[in-house]
Amino acid sequence: MALDVTLILICLLVQLSLQEHSVFVSIARLTAFLLVTGILGQFMFFLRTDVYFILINATNSSNLYGNGILFLKSIASRNRKENRRLWSELPKTEKSASLWFSLIYVLGIGILLALFVIFTFPAFLFVVSRAYHEISSYSMTHYLFWDGMASFSVIAIRLILLLVGSRNRLMDRKKRLQSEL
Description:
With 181 residues, the protein is mainly alpha-helical.
């Protein structure tokens, strides 16, 4: 994060020292924005970022994420009795830290889902509709056709990676369940 803050400082100095409508000022603004959102992303400690490990040290918890999930499973899982037994065996300090973590975890996932529905999904639909329009409206010799193809290519590659990752995770889960039997 120190490097991010240093780069933000450099971007701000570039914005102060150059003319308002310079290309370098636009690039510096975009870079500063991306770096600031990256720093803010570190505070999503429910996703095990650097701040999560700082929080573990501050609460003296050995497994904050695991115990928080255990608490949530003891409330809403099929194996409630087993999870409640495991939860009752935890020390009091672990329980209180894990309780707060699980509440923040649920709240954070809810906020992420809301942000996805409000911002990410509409932007995705806009990119797909624009790419479709560019491919269907322009010939192969026009640069907008290739812009639409590039957009579809990025979407296709990300979808393929998602499907391959999901398949690998499912296969690993099946192997793990078979080895437990």
